[in-house]
TrEMBL record:
This is SET domain-containing protein. The lineage of its organism: Eukaryota, Fungi, Dikarya, Basidiomycota, Agaricomycotina. InterPro entries: SET_dom, SET_dom_sf, SET_domain_protein, TPR-like_helical_dom_sf. CDD domains: SET_SMYD (cd20071). It comes from Favolaschia claudopus. Residues 121-272 form the SET domain. PANTHER family: SET DOMAIN-CONTAINING PROTEIN 5 (PTHR47332:SF4).
Length: 439
């Protein structure tokens, strides 16, 4: 999933409230340390060290447990953006959203418990040349393996009510209630944004690093920009070897390997729409992140680059029709979609191939071709396992519908090749799913 983004809705209505201002907090005694991530950015490093994280004068303490601070008391009740700090003692995460939303989030049992750390994660963080720091495999990593799991430091509603005089202090205030260790980890992430009247250093770091999180606990909620201390170290590649996904059930970001990786290989994700031409991808990356992509895909020889562009453009057109609500465009054939799936696989676009796989399964279902339905369902199951892990809701749901445990389903898929798989057995197991889907 490509990186998320932040938007702000400005509201100039001022409604004073008789609430005492929150105690101003200074953490200048917790100066941000020097870091290799900031090499060559001495002025930016100095600016970071001079930042004083205090709640602004318009902040108001709403409650101590849960720890909620109203970001600007002058805004009308209900529209003000608030900061929820979790856990209450030594907060490691701030959730920024309208007051009623943060109050609801504070009651979730899931978010009250820490995210289980991954034992011996298979990577190290080190210099990646001009790209700054990056993640690198510390040993061989297998396809579908969980690389990293962690909870975000910063999560925010994509539309925040901020008055013009609080453009910079709002984001500084949001971080003021975090533990020094968490705040420092966030501030050591790269800032690729030029400073403008609307974008200061703190917001620049958030804009540069935010990844989208779909929070299924909140019905019809938009994607929430979220910043992770380690996962956000993964650099971009137009043919990434890892996939980021947010697990709402544990409220953690996860990183899975899309391909087998050798020790020392850099771990990368996609920051932009990958089913697009080289020119379109580069323009998007330059606009949002201010760098020119020089990945191996962008540096292909002219003939191969042209072929890659042609394939991705055709796939993009098909995906655009699906986004309009069509399960598959009028006149589309199963053979056509399977061919695009092959292209996506050859281009290394695993997430794109999985979406095409769902469309192929729907086409097979529409033609009542049971064998193809089963084959495409197996393809979709395998993609789900690679992209989201065998403990994902998608994989668990499919296993349950087949009356198998996730271990049993994984064993069936791993013990055979597509040529030797017992599709009759799977068809029998999938019969309830097929019948349910045809209704």
């Amino acid at each position: 999933m490509k990186r998320g983004f932040l938007n702000n809705k400005r509201n100039d209505t001022r409604v004073p409230e008789n609430k005492a201002p929150i105690q101003r907090i200074s953490v200048t005694d917790n100066a941000i340390p020097n870091s290799p991530a900031l090499a060559g950015c001495s002025q930016q490093n100095a600016d970071r060290e001079q930042l004083q994280f205090r709640f602004s004068s318009v902040c108001r303490l709403y409650s101590r447990d849960p720890a909620i601070v109203v970001g600007d008391h002058r805004l009308p009740s209900g529209s003000e953006s608030s900061f929820l700090y979790l856990p209450t003692e030594n907060p490691t995460m701030v959730f920024v959203a309208p007051l009623d939303m943060v109050q609801a989030v504070a009651e979730w049992d899931t978010i009250k418990h820490p995210c289980a750390p991954l034992q011996n994660p298979p990577f190290i963080v080190r210099s990646s040349g001009s790209k700054g720091l990056g993640m690198f495999a510390s040993r061989a990593i297998t396809r579908g393996e969980l690389i990293m799991r962690e909870r975000p430091i910063y999560v925010a509603h994509p539309s925040l009510s901020i008055l013009p005089d609080q453009k910079h202090s709002f984001f500084i205030s949001a971080l003021a209630g975090l533990s020094p260790a968490s705040r420092n980890a966030l501030m050591l992430l790269r800032n690729a944004q030029p400073e403008t009247p609307d974008v200061g250093m703190v917001r620049g770091i958030l804009l540069t690093n935010a990844l989208a999180a779909k929070i299924t606990h909140l019905p019809n909620a938009p994607l929430f920009p979220s910043v992770f201390p380690t996962i956000c170290r993964a650099n971009h590649d137009c043919t990434p070897n890892a996939h980021y996904v947010f697990c709402a059930e544990t409220f953690c970001g996860q990183l899975f390997a899309l391909h087998n990786m050798a020790q020392g290989e850099e771990i990368t994700i996609g920051y932009t729409e990958l089913a697009a031409t080289k020119a379109t991808r580069r323009e998007s990356l330059e606009t949002k992140y201010h760098f020119v992509c020089e990945c191996s895909t962008c540096c292909l020889p002219p003939e191969r680059a042209a072929e890659s562009d042609r394939r991705r453009e055709v796939i993009a057109g098909y995906l655009a029709s699906m986004k309009k609500g069509e399960q598959f465009p009028t006149g589309a054939s199963l053979a056509q979609v399977k061919n695009m799936m092959r292209w996506a696989d050859e281009e290394g676009l695993v997430e794109v191939a999985s979406i095409l796989g769902i469309s192929a399964w729907r086409l097979a279902r529409s033609s009542d071709d049971l064998l193809e339905q089963v084959k495409m369902m197996v393809v979709v199951i395998n993609y789900a396992r690679v992209l989201e892990g065998k403990e994902s809701v998608t994989f668990q749901t499919l296993a349950k519908r087949m009356d198998l445990s996730t271990e049993e389903l994984g064993g069936v898929l791993d013990s055979s090749t597509p040529e030797t798989l017992d599709y009759a057995y799977l068809a029998q197991r999938l019969a309830p799913t097929m019948a349910k889907s045809s209704r």
